[in-house]
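Exercise: predict the structure of this protein bound to adenosine monophosphate.
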Amino acid sequence: MIKLLVTGTVAVDSVETPFGKKDSLFGGSASYFSYSASFFSPVSLMAVVGEDFPDEYRQVLEERKIDLKRLQVLAGGKTFRWKGKYGFDLNVAHTLETQLNVLQDFSPSLKDDRDVEYLFLANIDPDIQLRLLDEVHHTRAKLIAVDTMNFWIHNKKKSLLDVLKRVHLIVLNDGETRDLTGEPNLIRAARKIQEMGPDKVIIKKGEHGVLFFDGKYFSALPAYPLESVFDPTGAGDTFAGGFMGYVAKTGDLGFDNLKKAVAYGSIMASFVVEDFGLDRMRRLNNAEIDNRLKSFKTFSTF
Ligand code: AMP
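Solution:
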């Protein structure tokens, strides 16, 4: 039985923010997710990289004891690459270039290990997400969640809608929510998404917090207010890693506990944006997470 499995991208990013520019940063949706989740639960990463994938990036994941036995290296292939830019509105990422590379030949397979308790389909081609859904013993999974982005909403909408019919939860940002549904109002958009499949919908609004819909229940949480946001890349995946990691750790799918998981996700995201790439996460410890959660609780309840 795999406790928590993620599939998504493991990438080489180039990122430009108003505060600086970095080429060749370690990134990818599955990298950020698993790094964050590992603070709460064992996590297994299923992804593909090319022969050019640097050893030092692999070591970053090994630091957190992330299970890498399902990380394939494709001979002769090049790792997925993403180039993005942020203006002064750090909530909006502008994609300058996406090189799919090895992603085009990636076919995830679980072989005989098909019992997965918690599954996260991080941002990746929805056809790959569908293939993994075919592999997992669906009825035995406690929670199956998915993330996506505009690139796939525009290029692979039909496959994405098929994915939605087969998951319990979707995590999206506000722009993606509007794109997916064609509905400007986020509450109505969430209801529309629930009709497409997942009963649980999390809408991230960057520095404006999170909306969480669970069947007919609803909650709204602020973001942890930060004075200096340096690089927002990976905030969404880090949020999802904190959320799923905490759910996997506690095993409690009740609404109150899921709200707490949303708070943990928000706290994890508040750390990752404080430096480029995974740099801040690599300096993070559990005491800092607990302290920030405590202060978050103090100023967000009344
Ligand atoms: P986010 O949490 O949304 O900021 O995700 C940032 C990460 O998503 C970056 O490290 C990129 O490598 C990765 N990424 C960018 N575009 C895509 C895409 N089309 N599919 C999957 N991953 C992507």
